[in-house]
Design a protein that fits this description.
This protein has about 375 residues and is mostly helical. The protein is built from twelve helices and no strands.
Amino acid sequence: MKRSDTSDSHPLRERHPARSVTLAWILASAYTLLIVYASLQPLLGWRLPPAEVLRFLTAPWPHYITLEDLLINTAAYVPLGFLLALALSPRRPALRAVLAAAALGALLSLTMEAIQMFLPKRIASNVDLLTNSVGGLFGAMAAPLLSPAGFPGRRLAAWRRQLFVPGTIADTGLVLGGLWLFTHLHPTAQLFGTGNLRSTFDLPVYLIHTPGRLLSAEAVIVFFNLVGLGLLIAGFTRHAAPPLRIITAVVGTGLLVKTVAAVVLFGAPGPLVWLTPGVALGLTAGALVLYPLVRMPYLPKMITALICLCGAVAVINFAPDNPYQTVPPKLIPGSTTHLLRFSNIVRALSELWPFLVIGFLLAAAGTGRSSAPHGVDRTPGAG
């Protein structure tokens, strides 16, 4: 009997009910850890606060606060409120899920502000608490609109079913691919420059800068990451979907985010400051190699993506520093702008993203190996 949809044989197709730990809870927990990591940087110099821990709650309104500060602090907690409301909604009415998610977001913000009283380089603020809480509430209120029962949610669910294979594992891979877009908001990272832990852990510089080494390092980093990201996305597309078009759309969106953030948020001298010769070489070589690789079966895709991302992390941490890279004035420690806190969250995401994907690929490759029919994966078209 002829199958009506070849995607039914995909190794990641779920044949059992979803587990109790939903994807929304996993993502909400991950974003909570991201906020904690960003809120407590640098994790050095702990001390006893000079007075009671919660005295910042009654502090007067600061004179240096700006509309930009308020909007950025609000936006930082919108994803958390959204994810918490999605995670809570299956067992609660929509209103209760929204209120509970907003309360959890406010509690996290209060905890972070209180802990910052123990860090001399961080400033606890009641304004931050207020704006974070409002952001969590806004995110929670948006969750019912984007649920499968709402109009936008129905359209998104239909689009997702049309292009990608079903299942929680595929959902997680697509979310990780979407998070890659937000890593481009990190102003001091090169294009695809995720996983750089040198400044965070004060790692030594292994190679002295030369123009040739910098060009080669940028090209290799972009090449490995482009191939790894592309295969990650292609691994979850339906057999009838065009993976190359989807990959091109995702990468193009990432380049647009990088361009807009450089000019609007950080005042870069030009919109294409990220487009260095090394980056251009890496993009060209990666696209040429990615074209035939998307035709591979699922398991080789996952293994190749894993190897590429591991290689990219190794290269970026051993490569010479770029002496021509400068930190935007808004992000210099001690500045009064709250853009610094937003940058800490983005920086944490940029540093952790490849490690999250590497761990996910290890699990996804194992799942594909054990559940593929007769141990054979079908090969999707390149589209």
